[in-house]
Amino acid sequence: EIGGSIKMSKSKKNVVDPIDIIEQYGADTARWFVMSDSPPDRDVEWTEAGVEGAWRHIQKVWKISQEILLQSPDSIRLDSYTENKDIKILEKNMHIAIKGVTEGIEGFAFNKAIARLYEFTNFLSRSSAPKENKIKALEVLVILMQPMTPHIAEEIWANLGNSSTILKEKWPEVDEKLLIEENINLPIQINGKKKIELLVPRTSNVKEIEEIVLGHQKTLSLMQGKKPKKVIVIPGRIVNVVL
């Protein structure tokens, strides 16, 4: 019987047979719970709520997969800018998940890998990207889940129209370019003292950064009508306005 909240370890002689969880919730839930609860070098925090939470998440993934598959094909949107933005955001979050899950598995930090999967699942459930892009993201999600939950991953993979097993599918690779932020926060100093931070495009050169900083309302307010004697710009790091 699965009880309240205890630390499970052999030394405490309170190990719960995983068969009990498998019979009640299924093998995928048992694997997901054990791998998500603690790093390998720590005792498992054994709670019924934790097992049920793992089961609910797996059900959520199944529900999301069905909703995406049943979604009608998207017609051409009037606002193509919004559509493209939704696609880019989904792709970026997908590659954040690929990177996090891959590093978690390779480093035996399975709880961190699963944390990234939780985040990506929640993002995918809210995404407004077109159906074809969400299907691509769902394929990546189930490939990343496969080591932890092989049964539901295989089932969703087949429902997506794939005839071969997911085991033969290549592990997704990270596109590091998509993980680079388009804008960065630059600390702005006035006479050597940090006052504010401003967002500037990452690709801006020294002249462009200087124009952005000196033309911003916050900087103008701090300068109080004074003209700068010198503007020191270190791209990607800091700007110092000397009055």
For this entry, give a set of tags:
243 residues; alpha+beta; four-stranded mixed beta sheet; two-stranded antiparallel sheet; 9 helices; elongated; disordered N terminus
Concise overview:
The chain has helices at 18-25, 27-37, 48-70, 80-106, 110-126, 131-145, 150-159, 206-215, 217-223; strands spanning 5-8, 44-47, 183-190, 193-201, 230-234, 238-242. The chain has 243 residues and is α+β, with helices and mostly antiparallel strands.
Amount of helix: 40-55%
Listing every helix as H and every strand as E from the N terminus to the C terminus, the arrangement reads EHHEHHHHHEEHHEE
- Unreliable stretches (pLDDT < 50, length at least 5) are 1-8
Strand order of the largest sheet: 4-3-6-5
**Shape, please?**
elongated
**pLDDT averaged residue by residue:** 85
Computed CA radius of gyration, to the nearest angstrom: 25 Å
Report the biggest beta sheet as strand number plus sense, adding barrel if it closes: 4 strands, mixed
Proportion of β residues? 5-15%
| Alpha plus pi helix count | 9
Structural class: alpha+beta
User: Terminal Cα separation, in Å?
Assistant: 72 Å
Topology:
Blueprint: E1 5-8, H1 18-25, H2 27-37, E2 44-47, H3 48-70, H4 80-106, H5 110-126, H6 131-145, H7 150-159, E3 183-190, E4 193-201, H8 206-215, H9 217-223, E5 230-234, E6 238-242
Parallel strand pairs: 3-6
Antiparallel strand pairs: 1-2, 3-4, 5-6
Helix pairs in contact: 1-2, 2-3, 2-5, 4-5, 4-6, 5-6, 6-7
